[in-house]
């Protein structure tokens, strides 16, 4: 009987004890001074209790050595789709569902992601369960549907179709009880598909503002960005590949419009197009995390060779247009002007794999001239502000963090080599996350029949 009571007591107290500890000798990023400050930290009940200078000793029955690593605030991928990973020609797909995405993200050291288009019933129901409070997986933030015109971009599944200002208002009001974290609308005049007109976009943005919901506008051109910003969009997403007009950075700053550029999609394909050995070694195919999270059959579609004429010619055309140079110039000028740039991978797209794509986005933004400090700020505290999330390495906040090599602010390529992951004070065992991030046949059948969406 005594043994039984002892086991019961251990079962009751173990979760609390696991979330109470001191971690000494870590480097805390200071985004104002852009310096790494040596600190000791106490975590109690899964939250930061004390953050003190490393010269101040903290004692505990559970003391962990941070080994001089950087303690990073929780990352959020600000543009993804909770589906899975795609082959180049869409002929094969590694479908992993929402839970699979949540596990892939956390395995990659990403504590949350903003889903910018999924079946609204599935994604909101899953989000509202708040599973990370009880098990190891990343938090989902969600827009739900994509608002677009019939046959427009996004009109290939469960979404909301609007063609007039009145329809925009009515559909937004109908969605609002689900409490979307943001709402997304397509305003893309660069492609061949139809899109909403300016009057409908304006009505949508005004109604979103009156409902106190942040708006994200999918754009196709710099003119689209200008219009969306002038009409009051909270954020625009994607980065055109033509030369950026001179007025755009000042306009975005004046209007307070943030941008989620999702540079990975085009940049990764440029790396993988008719690739040299140096380009391949700098591509997603050479990231160790990719092999853990992505099926080999999908990876065999890359690099892009002349045998795949459609995509080969498309990327060749981007190179001829100077896409990489134009986009690099745009990112440098936007960053220099003080535009808030959030980090979003567009996971689920070509060569942008769930979890891995986030790290590639940070890598490419640095390669394009952005300061690593601004990039990390855009993937942490700026993302928290946009989503109104009370996260960060501050006393009283949830102990969501990762540990990284001390040189990470010199080379963001190191971000994919995450050393340790903590979620609500729990040290995360990464390997079990692969059961859902890379589903076996049994798990896939469950997804197929609609379980664990």
TrEMBL record:
<dbReference type="Pfam" id="PF01979">
    <property type="entry name" value="Amidohydro_1"/>
</dbReference>
<keyword id="KW-0732">Signal</keyword>
<protein>
    <submittedName>
        <fullName>Amidohydrolase family protein</fullName>
    </submittedName>
</protein>
<keyword id="KW-0378">Hydrolase</keyword>
<dbReference type="InterPro" id="IPR006680">
    <property type="entry name" value="Amidohydro-rel"/>
</dbReference>
<dbReference type="InterPro" id="IPR051781">
    <property type="entry name" value="Metallo-dep_Hydrolase"/>
</dbReference>
<dbReference type="GO" id="GO:0016810">
    <property type="term" value="F:hydrolase activity, acting on carbon-nitrogen (but not peptide) bonds"/>
</dbReference>
<dbReference type="InterPro" id="IPR011059">
    <property type="entry name" value="Metal-dep_hydrolase_composite"/>
</dbReference>
<feature type="signal peptide">
    <location>
        <begin position="1"/>
        <end position="18"/>
    </location>
</feature>
<dbReference type="InterPro" id="IPR032466">
    <property type="entry name" value="Metal_Hydrolase"/>
</dbReference>
<feature type="domain" description="Amidohydrolase-related">
    <location>
        <begin position="70"/>
        <end position="428"/>
    </location>
</feature>
